[in-house]
C-alpha cells in the first residue's frame, strides 16, 4: 500500500501542463472558482483518476485519503469540499455547461452529478483526449 501511495504523490510532478490547463478550464467554465477548497481537491482528484484509474473505484478508501494527506486535512473534508464545489456549480446553473464542453448531453436539467460521477466523467474524457 505504501508503494502505491508513494507513486500517487509523485504524479503531480510528472503531470502535463496541458492537462492542468484543461482541468482548470473545465472547472472554471462550470463556475467552480479557485477560492473554493473543493476546486483544488477536484483538480487533484481528476488528475489522480487519470494517472491511477484504479482510484476511481476506491474514491473514498484511497483517493480522498491521498488528497487529504497532501493537503494536510481529512478525507471527510475533501469529500465535503468537493460536494460543496459541485453544489455551487449546480446552484449557479453552470454544471450543465459540461454538456457543451464535451459536446454530449451528459446531464439533464435538475440532474446533479455525485462526486464520483463527476470525477469519473471528467477524468475519462480527458484521458481519451490525452491518448
Gist of the model:
69% of the residues lie in helices and 0% in strands. By secondary structure, it is mainly alpha-helical.
Provide the residue-averaged pLDDT.
86
In this structure, how is the largest beta sheet organized?
none
Give the C-alpha Rg.
14 Å
**What number of domains?**
1
Helix content: 55-70%
Looking at the overall shape, the CATH architecture is: Orthogonal Bundle
CATH class: Mainly Alpha
How many distinct beta strands?
0
Which features characterize this protein?
131 residues; mainly alpha; Arc Repressor Mutant, subunit A; 69% helix; 0% strand; globular
Walkthrough of the structure:
- With 131 residues, the protein is mostly helical.
- The chain has a single domain (2-129), classed as Winged helix-like DNA-binding domain superfamily/Winged helix DNA-binding domain (Arc Repressor Mutant, subunit A, Orthogonal Bundle).
- The protein is 69% helix and 0% strand.
- The chain is built from seven helices and no strands.
- It has helices at 2-10, 17-29, 37-51, 59-71, 75-92, 97-102, 115-130.
- Helix 2 (17-29) crosses helix 3, helix 3 (37-51) crosses helix 5 (75-92) and helix 3 (37-51) crosses helix 7.
- It is globular and about 35 Å long.
- 29% of the residues are buried.
- The mean pLDDT is 86.
What is the element layout, followed by pairings?
Elements lengths: L1 H9 L6 H13 L7 H15 L7 H13 L3 H18 L4 H6 L12 H16 L1
